[in-house]
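Re: beginner question about structure tokens

> Can someone show what the tokenized structure looks like for a real chain? I only ever see the sequence side.

Sure, here's an example I had lying around. Input first:
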Amino acid sequence: MIAPVFVDTNVLIYARDASEVVKQPLARRWLDNLWGSRSGRVSYQVLHEYYVSVTRKLRPGLPREEARAEVRDLQAWRPARMDEAMLEDAWWLESRYGLAYWDALVVAAARALGCRYLLSEDFQAGQDIDGLLVVDPFTTEPDHIA
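And the corresponding structure tokens:
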């Protein structure tokens, strides 16, 4: 089993975005691998962003009930809940690494869940954020971190 992998919102969205003919199959491959290894992790922030994006921004969007069912399924990944310690960690990360606040919350959630990897295209691939390694799912295969 691989170490826990925190999945950023963009990966979940690309897995649903049929207009992304290159990124969609890569995102799906990652998600299939993470479901199989039971190593995927998310936060409630990610689930909220995903729901809004696939129901309101994605064209064609998902029907609300389908999106809600997917969010319910993703709760099996033990989403991180915001608490005082995570908020303080996010502020520290924001100051220390110059991250945008919402990105700092993603990193803080990944750290709170004990993740070793952050799967995202929104951060610098290969960046080590205080022990959390950023992996670009569109340039790296899932086997690379197994």
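Each token stands for a local structural state, so reading them left to right follows the chain. The chain has one domain: 5-131.
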